[in-house]
Amino acid sequence: MPSISPQVTAALSQISGVPITVYDSEGAVDAARSAGIAARIASAGVRNVIAAGNTGEFFSLAFDEVRRLQAAVIEGVGGSALVTAAVGRSLTEAKALTSAATADGAGAVMVHWPADPFAGPAQKIDYFLRIADHAQIPVVAYLRSDEAAVADLVRLAGHPNLVAIKYATTNMMQFAEAIRATRHCDAIWVCGLAEGWAPPFYALGARGFTSGLVNVFPEISLAVYAALEAGDYPKARAEIDRIVGFEQMRTLYNNGANVTVVKEALALLGEATGPVRLPGVPRLTTDERARLAQIVGNVSAKALAS
Hints:
By secondary structure, the protein is of the alpha/beta class. It has 13 helices and eight strands. An eight-stranded parallel β-sheet has the order 7-6-5-4-3-2-1-8.
């Protein structure tokens, strides 16, 4: 079992930025432009870049597209930040993606929550553990449900190749209990619900948070992180208040507009990246786009003023 370096743990304890996937005019993945956005996020100061995460539309990409995208992001970032390659789907595919990402130079892999509607809660944890057994680089488990028992979360956190658990549910009672139950484990717990939820997660023991906002306003994400690390919760809340409208729009259509808002914000700033693939919301309505333009304009104006 490979050892987990302090550098990997440190990167995962900060902001995990998830770049969008760019499509060309024919709707195909534009790996080069996608890698460019990932490199820009790293250049802004984000120390962990997740290739093919949810903001990258993992579940609408074909297996070969994920492989090509991950390789391009790893090359584009060029060692300036940790690249964590997202893997998932069937156990066989997840293992194959893990091996491919390792060969391409990824520093870690993040395993998406299994989407099978008939999977057992404990068996979903077993799925993560099987991939951690297989991987030759550190593994991050991405929990998008609170259905697993705390005892199973302890099993997960105790795996020697499990470096972090990205917790993306609002069950703070379970999160607090899991933190207490895994104090003897080396794995860290990361806020998987982005900037808005980072303060309460930090208060309970999380380290770092995930972000799609870094595609558009990385300086705000970095300011939130700096404030939380300093224990300055009022400052963190003030920074989050700057983008609350942006994040609220991402929850439209039962979160179906999550990536759409990010992509359309980039388009408003002059960087067209193609519509979101189905079953995500491909485009905003005219009224929604106007509302987003006002939000982006206000945030940009305040950034210039400061």
